[in-house]
Amino acid sequence: MENDKMTLFDHLGELRRRIVISLVAVLIVFIVTFNYSELILNTLVMPLENKLVFSVHYPFIGFEPSGIKQKTLVFLEPSEAFWMHFKLSMIAALMVALPIVLSQVWLFIEPGLVEKEKRLVLPFVMGGTLLFLLGAVFCFIIILPFALGFLMTYKTQNLTPMISVGNYVDFTLKFILAFGAIFELPIAIFVLAKMGLVTPQKLAKARKHVFIAAFIVAAVITPTPDAFNQTLMAVPIIVLYEIGILASRLIRKKPEEGEEQTPEPPESKDLVKPE
């Protein structure tokens, strides 16, 4: 095989090539997004100005003023506004160029895969992109307005907020990127199950450990140390893990033609002989 003939330096050269292509793609998109950074910022401020409300009447869902005192952001250092626009444009460019980045990741690992595994390129690239964007939109529309509304109105009657644009952008981007990454969990489980590395039974047995790990991960990646925001992030992780288990069960129900499905070993309690 071609992969067997590649040396360590060949692998490093291929890795360097894929990284360079990904960086060039992101930088090209960055030139465009930087010109629209002010529009991106105005969009990012929307959760600060509005909150999502649900109703039993048509149109059932909508936005209304958040009631937060401060709706105009300030900058505390001369360079803060510039670096905020730079950071915002770079993250936007990365999100737009994500299909190219994921395709380069796949092309790097593809030589080490068998023909059956190479068919997963479309689920990996397209599914990974769509799920990441879905997680970012979910965070932007539902989580951020709820979190900001709670944090900035809870016992703040005698306090005046003065949020800098740099702190606000850091806060919101960390949330959006974290939820985008979290929403990749079902496709990660799907691909692993398709490759035969995990089974629904193993995933179900690990459920308790995943629940605990979800809160640990949420505590590490949330911008604030309070339990409220950690719960907002941990609950979607648990839900997405359950969706991943369901997807793996659907795969196990449809084995390929000519391939026998290996029965699961009996539980240890069934192997105990009666005295």
Fill in the keyword field for this structure.
two-stranded antiparallel sheet; mainly alpha; about 280 residues
Order of helices and strands: HHHHEEHHHHHHHHH
Strand content: under 5%
The geometry reads as globular
Give the uncertain stretches in residue-range form: 254-262, 267-271
Q: What helical percentage do the residues reach?
A: 55-70%
Amino-to-carboxy terminus distance: 56 Å
How would you write the strand order of the largest sheet? 1-2
Number of strands: 2
How does this structure look, described?
The protein has 275 residues and is mostly helical. It is built from 13 helices and 2 strands, in the order H-H-H-H-E-E-H-H-H-H-H-H-H-H-H. The chain has helices spanning 2-5, 8-35, 37-44, 46-49, 80-96, 98-109, 115-118, 121-153, 165-182, 185-194, 200-205, 207-221, 227-252, and strands at 50-54, 61-65. A two-stranded antiparallel ribbon has the order 1-2. Strand 1 and strand 2 (61-65) form a beta hairpin. Helix 2 packs antiparallel against helix 6 (98-109), helix 3 crosses helix 5 (80-96) and helix 12 (207-221) packs across helix 13 (227-252). The longest helix is centred in the middle third of the chain and has 33 residues, at 121-153.
Short structural summary:
With 275 residues, the protein is mainly alpha-helical.
